[in-house]
Amino acid sequence: MSPMFRFMCVVIGLATAGSACAQGTNGVPLEKQALVQHVVDKLALDSVGIEMLQAPVADMLQQSRVLIQTRVPADKQEAAMKDVTAEAGKFVEEEAPILRASTQAIVRSDVAPMLAQKFSTEELKQLATILDSPVLAKFETMVPEMRKTVGESLAKANQAQIKPKMTELQNRVGMRLRAAVGQ
Fold first, then answer.
1. Does residue 17 lie in a domain region?
2. Of 57, 81, 95, 144, which residue is the least packed, with the fewest Cβ within 10 Å?
């Protein structure tokens, strides 16, 4: 083997190894992977699964509260609601780790590649800068206050029109429920 051939093999080997080191999984450069991970972390997608679990549980608790208030003797209502609430809390507590792990796996397998495909490294850098911005953080802290302001103003502006109609609706629904129960 000639010295020149060995030299070329070494150069090709180093180039290939350097390229492999610069590329992460799925052929995405490590820098881009790190940016994608940073963006994913800022999006806080881990809470999606928990929120999806909590919504029907909250609905069930609300329905249970109504049922308990209407069907359970007054002296047993508080204990019954505590029992139901504890059972629901236990369920959420048991299922949350499974959903968190599943959510993380889905984010890694579906969302991260989507971001890596749709955004260039430069765009991901810009997105990370935006998500890290103290101005964005300040704005996000104001969102609940802005929503509350809109809600309060909306209620004031429309209460006279909506409240009588809501009362009529409640009466109609009440009549239908009484008819369905046979009263």
1. no
2. 144
Considering the domain architecture, whether residues 86 and 159 belong to the same structural domain is answered as: no
pLDDT recorded at residue 183:
62
37 CB burial (10 A radius; 0-12, 13-18, 19+): middle
pLDDT digits (tens, 9 = 90+) for 132-178: 999 999 999 999 999 999 989 988 998 898 889 989 988 898 888 78
Asked whether 107 and 50 are in contact (CB, 8 A), the reply is: no
In angstroms, the CA 29 to CA 119 distance is 13
- Tokens standing for residue 20: 């492999």
**Distance of CA 137 to CAs 42, 124, 163, Å?**
11, 18, 37
Residue 86 within a domain: yes
Domain housing 94: 30-132
Stated pTM of the model: 0.60
Position 27 confidence tier, pLDDT thresholds 50, 70, 90 = confident
β partners of residue 23: 29
Residue tagged 């996000």 (tokens) = 140
Whether 107 and 54 map to the same domain: the answer is: yes
Token pair belonging to 88: 């629901």
